[in-house]
Structure formats: C-alpha cells, structure tokens
Design goal:
Layout (H helix, E strand, L loop, with lengths): L1 H17 L17 H4 L3 H15 L12 E6 L11 H14 L12 E3 L4 E7 L4 H18 L9 H15 L1 E2 L10 H7 L1 E2 L1 H15 L3 E12 L2 E13 L2 E5 L1 H4 L11 E3 L1 H7 E2 L42 E6 L4 E2 L6 E6 L4 E5 L1
Parallel strand pairs: 4-5
Antiparallel strand pairs: 1-3, 2-3, 6-7, 6-10, 7-8, 8-9, 11-12, 11-13, 13-14
Length: 353
C-alpha cells in the first residue's frame, strides 16, 4: 500500500514538473507562422535568433537592486556553437525579434549590453515583469485571440480570416492610454484594451500569426492633414491575401467605441502612396536598415477586389443621424479627411473623403 502511494506521489510530482506551463507554450512556434525577419536570415543567424528568443522566454527575475531597472538575459553564444565577429549582428537580432514577435513586449529596448564580469552579452527585460506575471499575461492574450477568432473556421479563405480579425479586434480595444508604456504592445491591446497605433499594429500581427496569415509590422508616417500638409509617425501592417501584399491600418479603421470602418483595409499603392511613408519624420527608415529587415514586400498596385457577396450594402431603412470629425465634434457635412458617420440603427463607420 505504501509503495503504491509512493508511486502515485512520484507520478504527480513528475507530471507537474515535466509538463508545467511556460511562456514558450503561448508563443506561436517559429515554423508555424510567417516571421518576416527570420525568413531573411542565414542558417547561423537563425540559430542566433532561435537561441535569443528561447533565453528571453525563460528569463529569471534577477533585478534585486533598487537601482537596477531591468532583468538581465545572458547569451552564451559560443556554448551554442553560434559564431559572429561583429556585435552589431546581435543588436540587429534584437531589433528583428522585436519586430517579428509581438509576444516579446517584455524586452527593454534593443540596445545590446556586455558584462565584463562573465564576458557575455545580454539583453534586458523590464523589471516589472516576472516569469509568473509574463506567463499570466500571455495566457490572457491567447484567451483574447480565442474570443476574437471564434468565428474563424478551417475552410475560410484568407480574406474572410483577415476581415474577422480586423473587425473583432476593433470591437475589442479602443485607442488611448498614451501615458501607459503598454499602449505600444499587445498587453495594452488585449489586456488593458487601450493602445496606440503601435499597439494596434502589433496586435494585428499577433492575431494574423496565430490564424496562419502572412503579416508584418511596418512603421513610418501617416498624413494627418492635407491643408497644410502634415505627417506624423505611425505604425500599421502589410497582410498577404492570395499571394499579394496589401496595407491594413487598424488605427485608421477603428479606435473609437462603436466605430469600425474599412477605409484602410487591404489597400494598394494608390491609397498607400497618398497617405503613408515608410520613413519617420526625421527621415530614418525603421523597416529597412543595417539593424532591421533587409527589405519589405511590395504591396499590390491595386486595392483588394472584395467579394460581391461581402461588399458593404446600405440598408434602405438605415439613415444617417450624425456626422462627426475625427475629434468627435459634430459637423454638417463630410469634410476632407476621416469622418465618423452614425446611423439610425446605432451603428457607425469611418469614411475617408
């Protein structure tokens, strides 16, 4: 009897220790989704990418000094058979990981550090994160994906999947939380439900990766006014549908309660070139440079041709009850730029004139 009881205890012990959940359980495996930067790497660089990601996902809460604002994540490259001669190669990998993997929001900057006490490079994780809190947050993000994607079925085409993720996410989160550092990542988007353009774009990247759609995170500028012409730093996505890349800008289509438009959904070059630049206001390019991607895809010459059966149909019974500008102020007629139209059935949409 005692022997039998001991076997049960040992069985429970090993099952809980060997199969305990970890952060890696909630990060889409590299081979299971499209990672733009990873696809551009050499075999040695891919080993570096995979190893650095694994180290971040098993980081330890080692920031015990009140002056230390980060946890250190050490990289023992040589023990892994990973060779490099230029530290900038490692810095570039941090940047690519930051752009490729939205789950890696715990990373504190992409600047490489070196510890002369043990002769190892290290990355950094924000001090507020612990392995336990990180796992809990990733589980909440996964639950958000399950809710947003619940109407997606295996037989759906890529367009249907992209549309559902677009519309349901806009219902999920609102634009805001500018003073919160998580407004620029998926924690802000999925857990706090308040994020800015960067958080929205990373959230859509996360959703597409989990749904099996090819998607990348893109940064640059958005035109905010025609007269006078003004531009502001912005973030959005490229999404591939039926082998062709298109613009998707969640922020332009949503961000306000009850508002879901398709002004910037699966757009081609004409709309894109008129409203977007892949360089920041200071002229730098965060997408393609010596520490980021080698290139980004060319988007379609034309907008996506929407299926007739799914095109927006205006209900004759639905009447316009109000028109508002982007600041929420009521106006008498459509103005040039983004307008918010509210209808008699309680729905609303964004319209770009």
């Amino acid at each position: 009897m005692k022997k039998h009881l001991l076997l049960i205890i040992l069985s429970v012990f090993f099952s809980t220790t060997m199969y305990a959940e970890s952060a890696s359980d909630y990060v889409t495996p590299i081979g299971a989704c499209y990672r733009h930067g990873y696809n551009q790497l050499t075999a040695n660089e891919k080993r570096m990418y995979e190893y650095m990601l694994s180290q971040f996902l098993v980081f330890e809460a080692n920031a015990d000094d009140y002056q230390d604002i980060v946890h250190r994540v050490y990289f023992d490259f040589y023990s892994q058979g990973i060779s490099f001669t230029d530290p900038n190669d490692v810095t570039r990998m941090l940047t690519i990981l930051n752009r490729d993997i939205p789950e890696l929001y715990i990373m504190y900057m992409t600047i490489l550090r070196y510890d002369y006490s043990n002769y190892m490079y290290y990355g950094r994780v924000v001090k507020q994160s612990t392995p336990e809190s990180y796992l809990s947050e990733l589980k909440q993000c996964a639950a958000a994906y399950d809710s947003i994607s619940k109407n997606i079925t295996p037989e759906m085409n890529e367009y249907d999947k992209a549309l559902i993720l677009h519309d349901k996410f806009i219902d999920w989160a609102d634009y805001g939380g500018m003073t919160n550092p998580d407004a620029s990542n998926i924690k802000g988007s999925f857990i706090n439900k308040k994020a800015v353009c960067e958080g929205f774009a990373r959230a859509y990247l996360y959703l597409c990766q989990r749904a099996g759609l090819n998607c990348i995170y893109v940064t640059g500028q958005l035109k905010t006014s025609d007269s006078p012409e003004t531009w502001g730093n912005h973030a959005w996505n490229y999404v591939q549908i039926d082998g062709v890349w298109y613009l998707v800008d969640i922020t332009a289509d949503g961000g306000f309660p009850g508002v879901c438009g398709h002004v910037a959904f699966l757009k081609g070059k004409d709309y894109y070139n008129a409203n977007y630049k892949v360089t920041y206001v200071d002229g730098s390019n965060g997408n393609v440079n010596t520490t980021s991607y080698k290139s980004i895809p060319e988007i379609s010459d034309v907008d996506y041709s929407f299926p007739t059966s799914l095109s927006n149909q205006t209900d004759e019974k639905k009447q316009i009850v109000g028109i508002y500008n982007i600041e929420g102020q009521r106006i008498d007629a459509l103005q040039k730029g983004v307008n918010i139209i509210r209808y008699s059935d309680g729905s609303a949409e964004k319209v770009l004139r």
